[in-house]
Design brief:
This protein has one domain. By secondary structure, the protein is an alpha+beta fold. The protein starts with a helix and ends with a helix.
């Protein structure tokens, strides 16, 4: 559901989003074409999205990708950790905090 929330926030930053209606659908203007008179994009957390004007459709993950929102399986070079950084991060998050030097002794 977090990905759906990210998609919803992104759309709300661009256009007005109505919903959810009784079916759980959100309705807004489609970011993939220029018609801004009629909200044609319907979005549902489980069913995905469909624009009845330009026929864009797919899953929430597809919509997130099209909007430029990173999904769980997308990583960028800037958020990757080296093995030693990953170990240190895990050690810092442990209780009580430790460091790699204490493990060697």
């Amino acid at each position: 559901m977090a990905l759906f929330d990210d998609v919803l926030k992104e759309l709300q930053s661009r256009v007005t989003v109505r919903g959810p209606d009784s079916n759980g659908d959100y309705v807004t203007f489609c970011p993939f074409h220029q018609d801004k008179k009629h909200p044609n994009l319907f979005i549902h957390p489980q069913k995905g999205f469909h624009c009845f004007a330009c026929d864009a459709k797919g899953s929430i993950k597809t919509l997130a990708t099209k909007l430029g929102i990173p999904t769980d399986h997308q990583t960028t070079k800037s958020n990757r950790l080296s093995p030693s950084e990953a170990i240190q991060k895990l050690l810092n998050e442990s209780s009580p905090p430790r460091n790699a030097e204490t493990l060697r002794h």
